[in-house]
Write a structure and sequence with these properties.
A hairpin with a 4-residue loop joins strand 7 and strand 8. The termini are far apart. By secondary structure, the protein is mainly β. It has no helices and eleven strands. It is globular and about 40 Å long. The strands form two sheets. Strands 2, 4, 5, 6, 9, 10 and 11 form a seven-stranded mixed sheet that branches.
Length: 112
């Protein structure tokens, strides 16, 4: 059983930064692709960033150049560094393990 716990969300002003963390247990992280998704009120959950076991990354067009996904396999942790935040980035952010596991989510709110 894989368990994922996100942290690092909060309230920030537009232009600010946050770093989200996703700590995992129950799996050898280094063997798996991981992703960050988000869901804003009234909208579908969408992919924000994805990182393969080899470190290749993809990003949603809306966050390219502002967000960076990274991983520390020794710590079984995936990060999402979010810079130049915009009000439209406000959402609940979820960590995803390629085996179909999800964290509980962490709220990110960006004020204008």
């Amino acid at each position: 059983q894989v368990q994922l716990v996100e942290s690092g969300g909060g309230l920030v002003q537009a232009g600010g930064s946050l770093r989200l963390s996703c700590a995992g247990s129950g799996s050898i992280f280094s063997f798996n692709a991981m992703g960050w998704y988000r869901q804003a009120p009234g909208k579908q959950r969408e992919l924000v960033a994805h990182i393969t076991r080899y470190g290749s990354r993809i990003y949603a067009d809306s966050v390219k150049g502002r967000f960076t996904i990274s991983r520390d396999n020794a710590k079984n942790t995936v990060y999402l560094q979010m810079n130049s935040l915009k009000p439209e980035d406000t959402a609940v952010y979820y960590c995803n393990h390629e085996g179909g596991y999800w964290g509980q989510g962490t709220q990110v709110s960006v004020s204008s």
